[in-house]
Design goal:
This protein is α/β, with parallel strands linked by helices and 756 residues long. Helix content is 31%, strand content 23%. The protein is built from 22 helices and 32 strands. The chain has a seven-stranded parallel beta sheet with strand order 13-14-12-15-16-11-17, sandwiched between helices. The protein has a six-stranded parallel beta sheet with strand order 18-28-27-19-26-25, sandwiched between helices. The protein has a five-stranded antiparallel beta sheet with strand order 2-1-4-3-5, with no helix packed on it. A hairpin with a 2-residue loop joins strand 3 and strand 4. Helix 19 packs antiparallel against helix 20. The radius of gyration is 28 Å and the shape is globular. The protein starts with a helix and ends in a 6-residue tail after the last strand. The protein binds adenosine-5'-diphosphate and zinc ion (2 copies). The site of one zinc ion has 8 residues, from loops.
Length: 756
């Protein structure tokens, strides 16, 4: 290009200016900066491009979010140094990133990163002569896809449990070696052995070959009347230009079949779909099922894939080579073309909320995404969140129900044991007589049992062992937490404290005691009762070693008859057809977590645990031990009628304006100095109260339920607002007005799923 031509261009067109969001996390810079675009770069710059720009004495990476011709900045604009690549996001992604940043009070640079290919963004590194840019480090990786060989008839020896596990996983469809390794750390060796025996074949995924013989193992069912009607709701939603469908159905009721049929319909129209499942259920079985039905059209993204593998999956979506992306939370940001459908399975799961900034809720982001794209969102669950139920009731969501297990099997019979009655009869073991008898029967019949020790709560509370009474805060309707240090009871919402009553205020009993039992004690008591029974313990201690989780499950699996005893980690994903008894030792713990969702979570947990019994041909039995047999969650599970729980919850939440009848934000203040943390909390609360709109309410500040974490003291306050309010404006203003003390940080959690 000649100099003369360049000058001509400069004179005739207005100068091009790039709005650039800087990737400087420490500064948490939210607003974009304007830079001049040198004419030599004008042709290569576009919205979404990573660029190198001067910032003070440094060079840093930024992302172009707009190209304009006028700047509000009065001074001379510095020029962009270099355009580092082609666009990494488009206008749709940018709009959604802006919404996430605004709604969840996060810097735009952080929310934009959600959309960048894993490991694919350039970085600035210091080198001898100054600064150097490191481009994309990720070369496309290949992956090994494993599938059953046709008609091999090979049977692994009884002791080769990993080989058997691999074959079972593959019976649902081809699975990548990386995904198998997530479940079985020695999958590589097992696959080699199986390949040598002619039982499986492997191919390199990069060749994008259609896996041979895959569809043969994919059962395609004639849909039940309920499934057909659910699919009609989904079609109607698509015909109406998008919408939300709440799909309620117990495990085994055929929800996944509905997702698959809806996805196939989208693909037939040349469109794409994103499927979110909780990270924990991204098992080889789940992945195989999607692959076997949808073949090469599926990319899978989850956190345990290597960075290279994730990058590869991302590229498949970007290039339009796959129509379906399956993954945990972050798959929502995959660059799929022509999005028509988003599925969120187990939509009530708290794991859809991101624990670090940007603290978004995937369900809310998906709503926004689908609205912008005219896509349909399917929210599936056996125990829908109160939020989703509320929207279904007001008519904002369409609703479909699957009321029975299609795959056969009957729901387990549920028995509730009143532990205060046990206590009253002088029976003080962790194991009630009913549970002991049932365990004895199971062991005698040579079957298996799972015992679930609820440790969801960490906080101690007082419980009357004679009547089950637990002291609660009158204004917040949460259980009071007992503090060893002060010997007082404290409300972790509003901060009120009370002395410990000498006797139970309800029945006068002197047995008002701190509640809780550890897995070790539960194990030793159990082995005293059944000295010869194999007991497998599974908790944070026994599974902290790598592979410990898998080892425990394999041990349990290899016994003909045994008891698996563990914390909530065994509630999920566990699917052994030969388990005929499930016992919940202490349903009470989660009932008394200081969180307004305690009852809802207890219900979800109990339903999930109950679903573990009787998956096979034998009928199953569930025994729930509790000091509060009348608790709505217990009654709902025992009667098989979730309405019992939801009706009770609705009344409570309406009265206290908790979600779904209001919106909340939890502001957590933490730091190493207790007085500074307290002062910052008080100052922040004052600043908030000074500007609080009339319909808003601030509860607290109070010490957080987890008062100390990793050496930091913690306080918190809860902001309550009307259902459709935006909270970020008020909160940002207050945070700006009240500066934190030195060393104190404040974290804002909008739409929190936990309040510890
Ligand atoms: P969910 O996702 O609700 O747990 P699934 O879709 O996994 O339920 O279905 C449970 C089992 O029932 C699966 O083995 C599935 O293949 C089978 N199944 C699904 N739909 C039907 C149907 N219409 N008829 C017979 N079996 C079905
Ligand atoms: Zn009592
Ligand atoms: Zn209170």
């Amino acid at each position: 290009m000649s100099v003369a031509f360049g000058m001509l261009w400069d004179m005739e067109s207005p100068a091009l200016i790039a709005r650039v969001v800087l990737d400087v996390p420490a500064r948490a810079l939210t607003d974009p900066f304007d830079y001049a675009v040198p004419s030599a770069l004008a042709a290569s710059v576009a919205v979404g491009c990573p660029v190198a720009v001067p910032f003070g004495p440094r060079r840093c990476v930024g992302y172009v979010v707009a190209l304009v011709t006028e700047s509000d900045y009065a001074g001379a604009l510095k020029p962009i140094d270099a355009v580092l690549g082609t666009p990494l996001f488009d206008e749709h992604a940018l709009a959604l990133a802006e919404w996430v940043a605004e709604e969840y009070i996060a810097p735009l640079s952080e929310s934009l990163k959600l959309f960048l290919p894993p490991g694919g963004a350039p970085r600035v590194v210091r080198s001898e002569g100054g600064w150097r840019f490191e481009g994309r480090q990720m070369a496309p990786a290949s992956e090994k896809l494993v599938m059953l060989a046709e008609g091999s008839g090979f049977t692994p020896s009884a002791r080769a449990s990993v080989q058997r596990g691999v074959l079972e996983a593959l019976s649902a469809g081809p699975v990548s070696l990386a995904e198998l390794t997530v479940e079985y750390s020695s999958a590589g060796t097992a696959v080699k052995a199986l390949e040598a025996a002619g039982a499986v074949t492997t191919i390199e995924r990069r060749r994008y070959r259609r896996p041979a013989g895959a569809s043969a193992s994919a059962p395609r069912h004639a849909h039940s009347a309920e499934q057909a009607s659910a699919l009609r709701e989904i079609e109607a939603s698509a015909a109406a230009g998008g919408g939300i469908v709440l799909l309620e159905g117990v495990t085994g009721s055929g929800k996944t079949e509905v997702y698959l049929a809806a996805i196939e319909a989208a693909i037939a129209h040349g469109k794409s779909a994103i499927v979110l499942v909780p990270e924990i259920s991204l098992t080889p079985q789940t992945v195989g099922r999607f692959r076997s039905r949808l073949g090469d059209d599926v990319a899978v993204i989850h956190s345990r894939l290597s960075a290279g593998e994730r990058f590869d999956q991302w590229q498949l979506a970007l290039q339009g080579r796959v129509r379906v992306v399956v993954g945990a939370r972050s798959a929502l940001y995959a660059p799929v073309k022509d999005l028509a459908l988003v599925v969120i399975d187990e939509e009530h799961e708290p794991s859809y909320k991101q624990g670090q900034s940007p603290r978004y809720h995937a369900r809310e982001v998906a709503r926004r995404l689908c609205k912008a794209r005219g896509a349909t969102l399917i929210l599936g669950s056996a125990t829908p969140s109160m939020e989703s139920l509320h929207h279904a009731e007001t008519g904002a969501y369409r609703r479909a129900r699957l009321t029975h297990r299609v795959g056969g099997g009957t729901p387990a019979a549920v028995t509730v044991v009143d532990m205060s009655a046990e206590f009253g009869d002088g029976h003080r073991s962790i194991y009630s007589r009913t549970l002991q008898d049932a365990l004895g029967d199971v062991l005698q019949r040579g079957e298996k049992a799972v015992l679930f020790l609820n440790r969801r709560g960490f906080a101690s509370f007082l419980l009357c062992r004679e009547c089950g009474y637990v002291p609660e805060c009158e204004s917040c309707s949460v259980s009071l937490t007992y503090h060893e240090g002060t010997g007082r009871l404290e409300c972790h919402h509003c901060g009120a404290t009370h002395p410990v009553p000498p006797t139970c205020p309800r029945c006068g009993s002197a047995y008002l005691r701190k509640f809780g039992a550890g897995t070790e004690r539960a194990e030793s008591e159990l082995s005293a009762i059944f000295p010869t029974a194999p007991i497998v313990r599974m908790d944070a201690d026994t599974t902290s070693r790598k592979g410990g989780h898998e080892a425990a499950l394999t041990t349990f699996e290899n016994h003909a008859s045994a008891v698996l005893l563990g914390t909530q980690m065994i509630a999920k994903g566990l699917d052994y057809p030969d388990v005929t008894l499930v016992g919940v030792l202490n349903a009470d713990t989660s009932m008394h977590v200081p969180d307004f969702r305690a009852a809802e979570r207890t219900f979800q947990l109990l339903e999930q645990v109950a679903g573990r019994a009787g998956r096979g041909t034998q009928p199953g039995r569930v025994i729930i031990q509790t000091y509060w047999p009348d608790h709505p969650a217990v009654r709902a599970v025992a009667s098989g009628d979730s309405a019992v729980l939801y009706a009770a919850e609705r009344a409570d939440r309406l009265a206290l304006r908790f979600p779904p009848y209001g919106r909340i934000a939890n502001i957590v203040v933490s730091g190493p100095s207790a007085p500074d943390v307290r002062q910052t909390a008080l100052d922040t609360a004052d600043a908030l109260r000074a500007i609080l709109p009339e319909e808003f309410e601030l509860v607290g500040p109070a010490a957080a339920p987890i008062t100390r974490l990793k050496g930091n003291w913690r306080w918190h306050m809860l902001l309550k607002a009307p259902e459709d309010a935006t909270l970020s404006g008020v909160i940002s203003a207050a945070l700006g007005a009240a500066r934190p003390s030195e060393g104190v940080t404040r974290i804002v959690d909008v739409d929190p799923v936990g309040m510890l």
